[in-house]
Amino acid sequence: MTESAESLPVAQAPEPTGQPLRRTDIPFLRRWTSFGTGVGIAIEEDQLSVALVEVRPQGIRILDSLELLRYRERPAAEWGAEYAAFLAKHKIKHLGAVVVLPAREVISRTLPFPGVADKELASAVHYQLDGLHPFAEGEAAASFSRLPGAANGAVAINIARTDAVNEYATFFEEAGIEVAGFTAPAAAYFSALRILQFPPQDQFL
User: Fold this and answer.
1) Could you give the CA distance from residue 47 to residue 151 in angstroms, rounded to a whole number?
2) HSE-CB for 104 with a 13 A CA cutoff
3) Rounded CA gap, 167 and 90, in Å?
4) Nearest 5 degrees, angle CA 95-CA 36-CA 93?
5) CA–CA separation, 96 vs 38, rounded Å?
6) Are 191 and 7 in contact (CB under 8 A)?
7) pTM over 0.85
8) Closest CA relative to residue 179, chosen from 98, 105, 92
9) How confident is the model at residue 57 (pLDDT cuts 50, 70, 90)?
């Protein structure tokens, strides 16, 4: 998990329709700075849900989706090959996936940091970190990001057990899947709203 990095949302993907989802409320200038292609993987109980998403000034389109079923029961190389074939079908190489951790693995908190400068934010967050989770010292991996437009300097903080994150990282490495980073469901939803419309209200998280 990396600090202050927004991630692509990965949720249960609808069937691709070939038509982009129009951004009806997005500011004009932001629309023309949104451009790229990404892949996300949502870890679920008995499957991995994969979404390949294209962002263009005209809107957002789910290019394709894939469900890797019974991944816990199968050899990693097997479902890893299915994922590789999925990317190859779209002529995509060297694109790291953003992995959404299960909600049960992540503690999400929002704290106000009024008047704290950006250069001092990391120290301020880490000072309060131990009081936000039940893990022993050195067992927590955390990421944080300011919530744009929040009047009280609110910061979203996501915390996961280090061993759990490392276990998932090894899991995908054994499957040959390149991972760009891990994120939390709350962070994914917030990023989705930031792309599709005006920033949500301060109380969103």
Assistant:
1) 40
2) 3
3) 29
4) 20
5) 8
6) yes
7) no
8) 98
9) confident
